């Protein structure tokens, strides 16, 4: 079961990373004060997410390489989210529409095949009920399991507080200052608690603050160190850009290693499939009130 837990943890991080620009100038001030604004019904956001996974996959038996190939997965998704219900600091229900939801898989020397996912062009109502995500079509109809899984992967933040916003709310941060999140908060931020992983460290270093036409954006370098299991430690590096006055994610770019090993076959005749590679996630978000 260890291998499956490691895979689940990586998927959760991607989900977090996916559930998280025109520049006209840079502030000269050295300090910036952050405010976390409570969510409001009617708030609308558009989110463009690009996810790339490049892997070298090898099949081994008795320490010999039986076969190997390169694989690449590219997913591109645009989602438009309207807040329908809030409770305190949490968004409890949203309407989400997917203008784009596509995936391309390339294996070896084969040309990549572009696949339109079944959620493209559709609209869903997503609500957190206790610990579960309840997903319906906009007309209240039932959702097929494949669609439900795809929507749930991008909507896991529904019904959960914004731990990064709570951490930064009211804080004054200097350019160049590094903030270290408490491990408990970092674990919640990355959604690792339910998968059994631990965040060893999450560091945010403020690089710049810039003025855009409708918002101020703070650019942080971010380092995430996680421990999926007792023998593995992973470093994920990138940048996250936050709206200074709301603590909402404006953009994010992350790169990190991926290593998956699975064992198949009966005792004495086992073989191992190992995948090593890199994942890249890019997010762009824009918000408006409707």
What does this structure look like?
The longest helix is centred in the first third of the chain and has 18 residues, at 2-19. Strands 2, 3, 4, 5, 6, 7, 9, 10, 11, 12, 13 and 14 form a 12-stranded antiparallel sheet that branches. The chain has a two-stranded antiparallel ribbon with strand order 1-8. β12 (232-243) and β13 (249-264) form a beta hairpin. With 290 residues, the chain is mainly β. The chain is globular, with a radius of gyration of 20 Å. The protein has helices at residues 2-19, 145-154, 163-168, 183-189, and strands spanning 31-33, 43-61, 64-87, 90-107, 113-116, 123-129, 132-137, 172-174, 178-180, 198-212, 215-229, 232-243, 249-264, 271-289. It starts with a helix and ends with a strand.
- The coarse silhouette is globular
Q: List low-confidence stretches.
A: 1-13, 19-28, 192-196
Classify the helix fraction into a percent range: 10-25%
Mean pLDDT, as a whole number? 83
Largest sheet: 12 strands, antiparallel
Over the alpha carbons, how many angstroms does the gyration radius reach? 20 Å
Sheet-strand content, in percent, reads: over 45%
Overall number of strands: 14
The helix/strand order is HEEEEEEEHHEEHEEEEE
Distance between the termini: 46 Å
Class from helix and strand fractions: mainly beta
With helices defined by DSSP (H or I, 4 residues minimum), what is the helix count? 4
């Amino acid at each position: 079961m260890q291998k499956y837990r490691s895979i689940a943890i990586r998927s959760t991080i991607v989900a977090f990373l996916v559930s998280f620009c025109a520049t006209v100038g840079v502030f000269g001030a050295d300090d910036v004060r952050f405010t976390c604004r409570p969510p409001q019904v009617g708030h609308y956001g558009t989110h463009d997410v690009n996810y790339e996974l490049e892997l070298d996959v090898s099949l081994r038996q008795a320490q010999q390489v039986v076969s190997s190939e390169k694989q690449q997965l590219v997913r591109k998704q645009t989602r438009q989210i309207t807040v329908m219900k809030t409770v305190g600091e949490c968004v409890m229900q949203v309407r989400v529409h997917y203008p784009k939801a596509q995936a391309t898989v390339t294996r070896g020397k084969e040309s990549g095949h572009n696949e339109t996912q079944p959620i493209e062009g559709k609209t869903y109502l997503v609500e957190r009920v206790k610990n579960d995500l309840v997903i319906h079509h906009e007309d209240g109809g039932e959702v097929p399991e494949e669609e439900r899984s795809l929507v749930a992967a991008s909507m896991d933040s529904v019904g959960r507080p914004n731990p990064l916003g709570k951490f930064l709310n009211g804080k004054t941060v200097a350019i160049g200052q590094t903030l270290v999140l408490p491990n408990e908060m970092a674990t919640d931020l990355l959604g690792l608690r339910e998968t059994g992983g631990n965040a060893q460290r999450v560091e945010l270093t403020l690089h710049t603050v810039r003025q855009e036409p409708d918002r101020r954006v703070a650019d942080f370098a971010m380092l995430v160190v996680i421990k999926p299991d007792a023998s593995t430690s992973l470093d994920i590096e990138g940048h996250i850009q936050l709206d200074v006055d709301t603590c909402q994610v404006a953009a994010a770019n992350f790169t990190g290693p991926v290593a998956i090993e699975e064992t198949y076959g009966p005792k004495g005749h086992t073989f191992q499939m190992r995948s090593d590679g890199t994942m890249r996630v890019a997010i762009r978000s824009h918000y408006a009130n409707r």
